Amino acid sequence: MIPDLSAAIRNNDLFLHYQPQLTADGRALVAAEALVRWRDSRRGIVQPDQFVQVAERNGLIDQLGCWVLEHACREAASWDGIAVAVNVSPLQFRRHDFVDFVTRTARDAGLAFANLELEITESAYFDDPARAEGNLRELRALGIRVALDDFGTGYSSLALMRRLPLDKVKIDKSFVDEVGTDDGAAVVRAVIGLANALRMQVTAEGVETAAQQRFLQESGCDFLQGYLFSKPVTAAQLADYAKELRRPA
Ligand code: C2E
Ligand code: MG
Ligand code: MG
Fold this sequence. Notes:
It is a single chain. The protein contains twelve helices and nine strands. With 249 residues, it is an alpha/beta fold. It has a single domain (21-34, 67-229), classed as EAL domain (TIM Barrel). Helix 3 (61-76) packs parallel to helix 5. The radius of gyration is 18 Å and the shape is globular. One magnesium ion binds next to loops. The site of one magnesium ion has 5 residues, from strand 6.
């Protein structure tokens, strides 16, 4: 699988799907998350949970991360006012030249920094706290936004949220799944309250039902992403989706 993946990156056998992120009322498309897929001649379409960790363990994550960032920035440069969110592996994030690499890539692609968001996970911080904080401050000073992905699934401490200069937290799908229960609802409300108190915005992931949307909107969540609105789609389909949303009802 490893030599195959390395060749796939070189041969452009990867492609990106984009999943819409909307305002909580579901009316406006504000961003789309780039999600990588691999088109393999034997296995068909391979999903990222089958190969991103493999790439991390085998020294291919830099190559993979570069490919994704370059292609996402290039495609998103022509989007009209819609930002692109790119997942960044902790291993990539702790590279000493990470900020240079990101800014160079966005500039070369012609993507405004204001239209780029990076999604990191908390392990980006635990691996090297000083580097993580430094990179975050530099990125934000340039106007590149940073979101904490999969919030709630790891150690997600209060100290971490206070310390890291983040723009946004993404509440993991496993919490969204539970908002129909009293405890689940209380947890999500508490996370939104905490994020707002720390001047961070909140995106909920994996929103699948209208009831979940209603609850999240009423609870003050800013943005929503999930199958209720759209699965990850091609860039062309994303453009159609944006047009459809803009059409007056
Ligand atoms: P993630 O960043 O948390 O991305 C969200 C995942 O949830 C995506 O799966 C998306 O398709 C799925 N999803 C979104 N809405 C719903 C929903 O309503 N219901 C359900 N059941 N699922 C939903 P995907 O595309 O398979 O990606 C899985 C993970 O792989 C991502 O989780 C991310 O951690 C990683 N990944 C994807 N692309 C990249 C990349 O370019 N670089 C890195 N480092 N990681 C990536
Ligand atoms: Mg993500
Ligand atoms: Mg996530």
